[in-house]
Amino acid sequence: MTEEIHNDYEVSSEGAVRHWPVPYTRLTDTTPTPTNPAELTSLLPGTQLTGTILTIDATNSEAIIDFTCSMVYQQTVRNVLTYGGAVEATWGPINVGDIVYYDNSATMPAGTYLSTSPLDNLGVANTLFGYVVLNQDEVYSDFPVGAALVASTHTLAIMQVGAGR
């Protein structure tokens, strides 16, 4: 049987945009800052909904968060891979396509919420946030960034998983 070619179809590069207000009390970081990653609290570690903070409404203690699947934002990412007890133990280079997690470790540098570690410093599952992609000014030869055995933090384009996983 041959495949049918459809003459009328719809294509969207973005899909449904999901911008939702969330009370500060439902966020892992209860002092949200626009452009930072966000993680909603939930019962099971590693299953939280994540997105990017667009704006905050301090009067109503709400943050407007973009939970759109596949949206790309510049984010700060730590190259930590594992923790030994309460401290970072191993690091590695970050490459295009690498998984990035919302990391709740107390050892993360101030203002950094994402890392390449699937577990936090207490051994609890981190939540999948997204994937490293190229931004419009980068080429594949710019990667990998960071190095093994050296802790570093990088600003990278991250395609967020959002509400689409």
Main attributes of the structure:
single chain, 165 residues, mainly beta, 2 domains, 5-stranded mixed beta barrel, 11 strands, 36% strand
Q: Which value, in Å, is the CA radius of gyration?
A: 17 Å
Q: What low-confidence regions span 5 or more consecutive residues with pLDDT below 50?
A: 8-13
**How many DSSP-defined strands?**
11
Straight-line distance between termini: 33 Å
SSE string, helices as H and strands as E: EEEEEEEEEEE
Spatial order of strands in the largest sheet: 5-9-8-10-11
Q: What structural class do the secondary elements suggest?
A: mainly beta
Overall body shape: globular
Strand content: 35-45%
Overall tally of domains? 2
Share of helix, binned: under 10%
The overall average pLDDT, rounded, is: 90
Care to give the gist of this entry?
The chain has strands at residues 19-23, 37-39, 50-57, 62-66, 72-78, 80-84, 87-91, 99-102, 114-115, 127-133, 153-160. The protein is mainly β.
